[in-house]
Amino acid sequence: DQCFLGHTCNEICAALKLKPHPMQLALDEEKTSVEAGSSASSTPSSTHGSQICELCGALFKLRQQEYLDTINKYQAVLCAECGAKVDANNLSVPCGSCSKEVYFSPYAIAIKGCAK
Fold first, then answer.
1. I want to staple 58 with a disulfide (CB 3.0 to 4.6 A). Which of 8, 30, 79, 84 is the partner?
2. Four-residue CA torsion sign, 26, 28, 31, 34
3. What is the pTM for the complete model shown?
4. Contact 56/79 with Cβ under 8 angstroms?
5. CA distances from 21 to 13, 35, 95 (A)
């Protein structure tokens, strides 16, 4: 059931005549071909589908380049609110080995904890 939280129906779902799963989140304004009941030749939605913020658990959507930009910037999927908090609270310390500045977010650490 967890796979449906981020799933957006597409032409494959339509060809198989599948119905949306009850766990599927409907955060997109557009309807996919399955949801709209149109033929399998309809153009599917061009989103990455519903996302769940890795810090606060909020449900939101990111489209194509926004998704890639968020992953590149934070190495995580973050909602706009958490992204702003991470940006506002970034700190740096020198690396113990090479003395290069290492940036981190106390906000992200407080929510998610430290990775080992």
1. 79
2. negative
3. 0.54
4. yes
5. 11, 11, 48
